Amino acid sequence: MKINKRHIAKSLTWRCVGSLDTLFFTWLITGDFDQGLNVSFITTFTKLIWYYIHEQLWFKSKMVDFNKRHLAKTFSWRFIGTLDTILLGWLITGNPFVGLKIGIFEILSKMLLYFAHEKLWYKINYGLDKRTKLKRIKNLRERSFEVSYVDLKDKRGLDHFVGKHKPDIVMHLAAYAGVRHSLKNPQQYIDNNLTGSQNLIEVCEKHGVENIVYASSSSVMAGNPMPQDEYEKLPRALNPYSFTKASNISASLTPCRGLFFCSPIISIVSIIVP
Fold first, then answer.
1. Each residue's pLDDT tens digit, 14-24
2. Is 241 a catalytic site residue?
3. Residue 216, SS3?
């Protein structure tokens, strides 16, 4: 079973909420705060394991109606969680009725808390990068697009790919994006954005592709007065990301082994809607 960082994060956040709820009801029913701590402490570990398994199984579910999915997950987890609480409450207190009471009290409170937890996590994209990518690829294939994989740093593989398909136009959108991340991993950006783009230009030259549309970024113009136009001189790069984008603009507009690429360049901006 593959470890999923989203499931781990959800398990931990839910366990914090669930353990506090268990502590409160155990203390309320037994009148003993120490008993409440014991039950909530031990159930923290057992329920972390159960919850993670539960998330992994539901991740494979094909249910697409999100409200129905949240409700179904709430009921299935509540059954597992309540059974776990009843058994551990009985074992720790030595009284089966105490475990039963805690489990019954928890049913309603934890169902409401769990449903709210699921709704909240549905709005958080953490750990969904791979699923989002697969969904986009599936949508493209459903619209009759051919989807292939090639690494721009692998010049031999890139040469084979372009030679096989012989495109009239190449729209170069591939890049590591993000200013903040580039400050932490500048070499990663240089290797991917600069080396990869240079490989693409050289391979396109080799196979006679003269039309390359390059996706740049508004970050290359940071530092220039506003408004700006395409004839403005590029300022000094403020970060590794904008440096790679600016360098690729220069490479797209300069001779490459005798062939002059007059590439359309699109500087994509962030749009903030109030």
1. 888 888 888 88
2. yes
3. strand
SS3 call for 7: helix
50-59 contacts, C-beta under 8 A, 24 or more apart: 50/80, 50/81, 50/84, 51/10, 51/11, 51/14, 51/15, 51/77, 51/81, 52/7, 52/8, 52/11, 53/1, 54/80, 55/4, 55/7, 55/10, 55/11, 56/1, 56/4, 56/7, 59/4, 59/7
pTM: 0.48
Q: Domain coordinates of the chain in residue numbers?
A: 5-122, 148-268
Backbone angles phi, psi at 218, to 5 degrees: -65, -15
Q: Active-site residue among 51, 189, 214, 241?
A: 241
Instruction: Assign residue 50 a region (left: φ > 0; alpha: ψ between -120 and 50; beta: otherwise).
Output: alpha
| Closest of 114, 95, 109, 116 to residue 39, by C-alpha | 95
Contact 117, 134 (CB under 8 A): no
Look-up of token digits 């790679």: 244
Structural tokens at position 6 = 């989203």
Q: What is the C-alpha separation between 24 and 113, in angstroms, rounded?
A: 14
How many CA atoms does the CB half-sphere of 114 hold within 13 Å?
Answer: 26
**Cβ neighbours of residue 101 under 8 Å, at least 6 residues apart?**
29
CATH class of the structural domain 148-268: alpha beta
Task: Supply 198's token pair.
Answer: 């240079």
How does pLDDT run across 130-142, given as a tens digit for each residue?
666 777 778 888 8
Phi, psi of 214 (to 5 degrees): -105, 130
